[in-house]
């Protein structure tokens, strides 16, 4: 078999226009016009509006290619379009060879009859997705979200491209994945399915290979399994049938573990189709040996929702992932890799691919395999009604088969989920309860998709909707059964402590918005726009009146910030505190609650949103908080009306011997009371180590100037620390901490030592260029220096110690209302 990559040498123009632009795939209309400087950056100010005009038109992508004599001698020629976005007719030398209307499908088009010697022309005409959905909406209006262009659910194109409550309306068009031309004689490998059966001390790998046809030739099939250490085992079959089974027994298997629980060893599986010594076709896979089950069983609290990996019930820690860029060709492996590394750095072990976007690239899953993130994979349906016409049914069934076959061998794949919030929406969002809508729901998500999963990936658990209690419109929001999306904090404007009223079995969505940093806002604004209620700032806030909501929560918790930049900073503190409040509570209830995935990890453009990492990859305060609240061993303080409890949560598979030191201190960090407690925390357990009653010491006045600090030592080594105050931050009597810094270096790292002379919270270090620090937004007690490090490997080589010193800016909660350090020249560097 010969495979030619067909990504190079395309050109594109508006269908009725004359100007051609050169294109390399993957490509989109908007991105091509942007590169050619025909349109302005759609992310800048209100340019999004112009993007809609672009998407109203039709376009043509064209490529000419040569076929030499002799090359036409293959028996079969096939174009593979790995992704067309979305409505297109495809022509080869004037013959229509296919039409597409699903960006989530892979199209294989047989073209032998239309190829010719000499110059060939391949044309893809892409039609406006907006015109299509508008006409469909007119015929059959369906319930859905109102921040997307109406009718979006009729088209199998990423819903959020039509607008979402964090996403712009940029329904771009393009050929968003590779195009290949494959040619072969005799036969080729159509499909490989790898199943694993785990027994004590060994794993049996079953490899099922399907060939394209039954032609009786003298071909051979070779299957090799190569261990992480390079040990190879080969099996060969002669006299092939169209379907062949091979089975490998792997003794003493090296198991794959989610991050935080062990290594991620990967085995290679290489399948070759041979004619004599000549290799006709080959497919390579990497697999990880592990079992992932989801337990949904009755217990004393309701019905569980618990991931069991290699036999151990594991608390899932992570966030929800959305498309990384509204202009799809701009996503790259390097960007995704950084994001996945950022997840790992924040102690995630799970990432949920949310159903309103698209199925990510192969490298996304490879990276999750390598870094130990379990993927919760939604099918691409979200918050909408879908009608099962004959065509739609066939279309989504083929889509599911394409995607399952593409993804199923990945070690990281942990669950298939039918949709995002459709069951809940149909039951609780006030939509008309039409019988035909509900019937189609059941057919699609509770009959068809589970059947397809059962047929093509029977080893992966299927869950019909998120959230759900198991389906059938049976209390999808029940907090004690299945998974839950909890939005009363934020959308319902309830206070953070509302989280503590729930002991969800698995909280797969909850979130809180913040603004991105000033640098990010500068990328899309003019100075005059930098007010959160300006027209442009509101254009970059897609959740209705959410800027007001941020201000409301701000009024509840912090003093009124002194300027725009401080408001951005404070909004991030609110967000970080909110999510921490929920996560720490659920982790204190480990065993009953078995997962927390906050909404949302990333952004697809610069915007105010629920993300913990902004469009440019900048970590918000929340991401630094996540690294701490998702630490495998967590010390957390549950302050109450009367008592304060010190909890230690241990996610490890082994027990942890620890000591927790606690100090009740005033705002100058003078110790009023102190003590310590030694305990052994069993594996996979949370323990309330000590209940402290400060009711006699903490008078109303002291509540405004005292804090509790807990320091966790593991094997007598400092591990982490945390503090809690007993009043809202806005009422706490913070003193000027007079922050100072000292910067030094060794071969590998830059060290920044920060010192405060009074207790302060949320110390932020800002640098130019942006770098990820070992910690940020941390609390400091007086006269107890903290050293924050930067790995030199992540710094541009040209950056010197002096650059770091000069760009370093510090602020903390005190500076919400007071001039920050830099402005008062308070820093004594060096
Ligand atoms: C959840 C998600 C998204 C949405 C988010 C914030 O419901 O599934 O649809 O963006 O909330 O509202």
TrEMBL record:
It is an enzyme of class 3 (hydrolase). InterPro entries: Beta-gal/glucu_dom_sf, Beta-mannosidase-like_N2, Beta-mannosidase_GH2, Beta-mannosidase_Ig, Galactose-bd-like_sf, GH, Glyco_hydro_2_cat, Ig-like_fold. Residues 736-815 form the Beta-mannosidase Ig-fold domain. The keyword Glycoprotein applies. Residues 306-422 form the Glycoside hydrolase family 2 catalytic domain. GO terms for biological process: carbohydrate metabolic process; glycoprotein catabolic process. PANTHER family: BETA-MANNOSIDASE. Belongs to the glycosyl hydrolase 2 family. Beta-mannosidase B subfamily. This is Beta-mannosidase. It comes from Gracilibacillus ureilyticus.
